[in-house]
Amino acid sequence: MTDYSRPVRVPMPDWTDEELRTLVDFRRRKGRRWRSKLLDLYLFGKDDIEPNGASLRHIRNRQGPSRVAALSKATLDEAEKRLAPIAKRPSQGDVS
User: Fold this and answer.
1) Which domain of life is it from (predicted)?
2) What's the rounded Cα separation, in Å, for the pair 40 and 65?
3) pLDDT per residue as tens digits for the range 40-61
């Protein structure tokens, strides 16, 4: 028999490369106080007017503002280093 009186803990989803890339880009554009600026955008529903607004809204819906607030600087720094070579690769349509 299932005990419905106990809350079920659902594991939080891992950060995807695309989510981390979006947050790294936002941090690069907004500077040191990027996190509070993003949380303000979430609070007032203005995240969709930013570049990559759809991705920022997806992060809010999937991870939640509390996960963004808890994201460590080290995690984003590591993601920036790991994903930087990917961003610099020429796309398939580029002719060299």
Assistant:
1) Bacteria
2) 10
3) 999 999 999 999 999 999 999 9
